[in-house]
C-alpha cells in the first residue's frame, strides 16, 4: 500500500481596506442609522404573507443597554425585523481662519 502525502496551504486573510481619502481636513462624515417599516411576515406559519403596518421602529426604552430597547413599542417585533436606513451627512467644521 502506498502512502499519500497531503499538503495544506493556509491562505492569509486579505488586508483590511484602507479608509477613503478625505477631500478636506475640516470635513467629517457622520452616519445616522434609523429603522423604518416592519417587514415581519405574520402569516408565514399558514403559508401567506401579511405585515402589520408598523411604519417606523419605536424603542420601548430610550436607553440602548436595556433589552427592551431592541423591541418595537408599536408592533412588539425585534428591531431586526425593521428595514435599516443608513443616512450619511457631511459636516464641515470651520477652523479659526474661517469667517
Automatic annotation (TrEMBL):
<keyword id="KW-0479">Metal-binding</keyword>
<protein>
    <recommendedName>
        <fullName>ZF-HD dimerization-type domain-containing protein</fullName>
    </recommendedName>
</protein>
<keyword id="KW-0863">Zinc-finger</keyword>
<dbReference type="GO" id="GO:0005737">
    <property type="term" value="C:cytoplasm"/>
</dbReference>
<keyword id="KW-0862">Zinc</keyword>
<dbReference type="GO" id="GO:0000976">
    <property type="term" value="F:transcription cis-regulatory region binding"/>
</dbReference>
<keyword id="KW-0963">Cytoplasm</keyword>
<dbReference type="InterPro" id="IPR006456">
    <property type="entry name" value="ZF_HD_homeobox_Cys/His_dimer"/>
</dbReference>
<dbReference type="GO" id="GO:0008270">
    <property type="term" value="F:zinc ion binding"/>
</dbReference>
<dbReference type="GO" id="GO:0003700">
    <property type="term" value="F:DNA-binding transcription factor activity"/>
</dbReference>
<feature type="domain" description="ZF-HD dimerization-type">
    <location>
        <begin position="35"/>
        <end position="85"/>
    </location>
</feature>
<dbReference type="Pfam" id="PF04770">
    <property type="entry name" value="ZF-HD_dimer"/>
</dbReference>
<feature type="region of interest" description="Disordered">
    <location>
        <begin position="1"/>
        <end position="31"/>
    </location>
</feature>
<dbReference type="GO" id="GO:0050793">
    <property type="term" value="P:regulation of developmental process"/>
</dbReference>
<dbReference type="GO" id="GO:0005634">
    <property type="term" value="C:nucleus"/>
</dbReference>
